[in-house]
Write a structure and sequence with these properties.
25 strands; 6-stranded mixed β-sheet; single chain; globular
Length: about 550
């Protein structure tokens, strides 16, 4: 796109044109391009929340004379003079036109299903034929006349993605129908929960803005199904503490400062209409209970889906992500914690990192001569390295002696090229440091939890790995870099999207719903910030383990 010059200054009649599509916004002096894009609900990645730290919000701009000069940060990361970081480019003149070309969102590989045990079919929402006209009821309350369909939807609100499952509440034999998913649009406000809490609590109307963009995305998913939205009578929601409460419109300020606790951990039932959720006008939104701290309804759903709380043997579950949750225990009790592992393994903050998009390098090997071979999602040309590829890369760099146990290049080089030559896809020292910090947080958290439970890793009979990252990683590679406890491969079970399956369970079974509400307060949360040995353990884990 060629440059388009504005006339500078002006009476405030100018506009910002967003390409592709041509949507228009009036220019507002003093606001960044990112502010304008957010106000227009334009999908744009801002991993760092708009602080100029991640370069993910790069856009191509015409009308640069209406913007503040390029900053030193932009000069250091943007080679193209026609590009700006949307979070750094401030509108200073409003008497002309600025055209902003936003990169199209790539297609993500989102896990929509997971492991779910067999349960009895007794949905709280049911079709009652006890009087005249059949009614759809919830706990004896009519939600409207039965018109041939009675559906529920299970929603997993992830920090990065949203997944929705339609379930037929009148079919006890095969209730699962279809699923849909999308990126969480809140990613334009930051790729982690702390950035979103900050936005909700420091920006006027920020919490409402975060809620509304989430509701809009959910309603967009609901419209994709083959079921009339007004024939959906209940939505069950699982998500971490911040995501759940942002959807419900609850204050999240308590999660932004010590001791990092939500307003309440109890389950919540809310009228769908009051939240703007486009299901039956009398429909119910049931949000599963939280456990405490950042350990939310998604972890409770994971416990339900894996039946950790019913087992005699000790098991461990790890849901890998920006905020990694870990649980350990059996029917005698369960301990949980959350680790601020950060988004490095989701590609954020890594120079050539990316999410699980088409073209992402997901498998990687280095031979004895240092030659790299790889596989990409969708078999397309490489666009970056996603989490599973980053783990493979670290493990291979260690095994080939290219980096040492401290994560430093042995031969003095500044980077290791993976694809595309000198200006292609690579890992450098800064990337290695970010990945090392992330893996150390997870390993230290798991170590603390094992110690608190009074067991060693050999006593753990199953290791459940949840989430998209847990689904695709090479377990041996994750053990090689010291991110995961080393257990025999036969004990590792990848459970996929256990969060959505736990939400489905409370839609399909009154007993599971009661069990979830009784179980949540009995799960003990371990605060790593208060553990006296966590920092020492974290420092130890900054070194990669010896091979073997």
């Amino acid at each position: 796109m060629g440059p388009v010059r504005g006339d500078g200054g002006g009476a405030g009649t100018g506009e910002l044109i967003i390409l592709p599509g041509g949507r228009r916004r009036p220019l507002e002096a003093g606001k960044t391009i990112l502010d304008h894009l957010r106000q227009a609900a334009t999908p744009v990645t801002a991993h760092c929340g708009g602080r100029g730290e991640c370069r993910a919000c790069a856009v191509t701009v015409g009308g640069d004379d209406l913007l503040s000069p390029r900053t030193a940060i932009e000069d250091s990361v943007l080679a193209d003079p026609g590009q700006r970081l949307a979070c750094q480019a401030v509108v200073v003149g409003t008497g002309g036109t600025i055209r902003v070309e936003v990169p199209l969102y790539p297609r993500y590989s989102i896990v929509e299903r997971g492991m779910r045990p067999a349960i009895g079919f007794s949905p709280p929402v049911r079709v009652s034929r006890e009087s005249g006209t059949p009614q759809v009821t919830l706990e004896g309350r009519s939600l409207g006349p039965y018109e041939g369909e009675a559906y529920g939807v299970a929603l997993d609100i992830g920090t990065t993605t949203l997944a929705l499952r339609w379930l037929d509440l009148s079919d006890g034999r095969n209730p699962d129908r279809f699923s849909a998913s999308v990126l969480n649009p809140q990613i334009r406000f930051g790729d982690n929960v702390i950035d979103r809490v900050r936005y909700a609590t420091t920006r006027p109307g920020g919490a409402r803005e975060l809620q509304q963009c989430l509701v809009t995305a959910i309603n967009g998913l609901l419209s994709c199904g083959a079921v009339r939205p007004d024939h959906i009578y209940e939505m069950a929601v699982a998500g971490n503490s911040v995501m759940r409460d942002l959807l419900l419109g609850r204050p999240v300020g308590g999660l932004g400062a010590y001791p990092f606790e939500p307003v309440s951990i109890a389950a919540v039932d809310a009228d769908a209409a009051s939240l703007g959720i486009a299901i039956s006008p009398r429909g119910n939104v049931h949000a599963l209970p939280l456990i405490g701290h950042f350990v939310g309804a998604d972890t409770l759903a994971l416990v339900l889906a894996t039946e950790m709380h019913r087992r005699e043997e000790v098991t461990m579950a790890i849901d890998l992500g920006t905020n990694t949750e870990i649980a350990i225990g059996n029917r005698e009790g369960i301990l949980v914690t959350s680790c601020a592992s950060g988004p490095a393994f989701e590609g954020s903050g890594i120079g050539c990192g990316t999410g699980s998009v088409e073209g992402a390098i997901e498998r990687l090997r280095i031979d004895g001569q240092g030659r790299v071979s790889y596989e990409t999602i969708g078999n397309g040309p490489p666009v970056g390295v996603c989490g599973s590829g980053l783990i493979d890369a670290l493990a291979a760099l260690l095994d080939r002696g290219i980096i040492d146990r401290a994560g430093r290049f042995r031969d003095g080089r500044e980077r290791f090229t993976i694809a595309g030559g000198e200006r292609g896809i690579y890992l450098d020292g800064k990337d290695l440091d970010s990945l090392k910090l992330a893996k150390a947080a997870i390993a230290a958290g798991a170590g603390v939890l094992l110690e608190r439970a009074g067991v060693d890793i050999d006593s753990v009979k199953k290791l459940f790995l949840a989430g998209a990252f847990g689904t695709y990683i090479d377990v041996a590679g994750a053990g090689r870099i010291g991110m995961l406890p080393r257990v025999p491969s036969g004990r590792v079970v990848k459970v996929g999207n256990a969060s959505i399956e736990g939400a489905a369970m409370v839609l399909l079974s009154q007993e599971c719903r009661r069990e979830a509400q009784e179980l949540a307060p009995r799960i003990a949360h371990v605060s790593l910030e208060q553990d006296p040995g966590f920092q020492d353990r974290f420092i130890e884990e900054l070194t990669f383990p010896e091979p073997g």
